[in-house]
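Re: duplicated header lines in exported structure tokens

Our pipeline writes sequence and tokens for each protein into one text file. With two proteins the header for the second block appears twice in some exports. Here is an export where it did not happen, for reference. First protein block:
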Amino acid sequence: MDKVMRLASERGVVLFSKSSCCLCYAVKILFQDLGVTPTVHEIDQDPEGREMERALMRLGCNAPIPAVFIGGKLLGSTNEVMSLHLSGRLIPLLRHY
């Protein structure tokens, strides 16, 4: 869990992803459309990926990927990101970044 928290707090917007995940792709495209460039960690390409996935679950992610952190705090997965975006509450969170 230490590695996940360290990586999540190194940049303003951090996305834990898997390279073959369509929901991860959708979140990446949303951020791109909003002009935000998150730091992306492809956990399927990391030797510690399985442990990172378990750590994300322990942090409270219903689905471990995609996992979005803003300002070092867990925002959530696709459902949370899209809900915030549709309600107009995502952009204010991203404005600083």
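Second protein block, exported in the same file:
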Amino acid sequence: MEIPFFLLTIIFFLSSSATATSKPGESNDLIRSSCVHASYPSLCFRTLSSYSGPADTPRDLAQAAVKVSLSRARKVSTYLTTRVTGKSKRERVALSDCVDQISETMDELSKTLQELKHLRGETFGFQMSNAQTWVSAALTNEDTCLDGFEGVDGNVKSDLKKKITNVAKVSSNALYMINRLNESRGRHR
């Protein structure tokens, strides 16, 4: 269940003096104002305000959001390749397909991150289009992974659905941050 953003703001103000991971005021203001309209605002705020790298510009936030997505996708990939085995043939096939989908997701998020790190004025629009396309494709891969488990019951499906849904949520927020960066046309690069 998502915490309403206004409650998140109150919690932030009450805890900001005691939180070691908090950014200076301006960074948290940017994070808060940037996350307010994200698909998952409380998740956006939580993940970006605890991010250890820079978060001072829309570009920083877009990169941080993609890094969060990539990190979570890597964790799912590790989970899939080291800790999960399917019981039925159908489940094993779905898991194998999901490993491939998450691998593609990681590739697309990695390309996105590289594109965001090397933005140039003359190619900004093209680069942003690439980033938007790649993150959208990553979201599609995540959905496709879950689709493979249609008609399969059990703990593997349930556990994987939670993990993939989390990656999809942070990826959706990353796409939102990329769209915000595109709308700003790269100001504050």
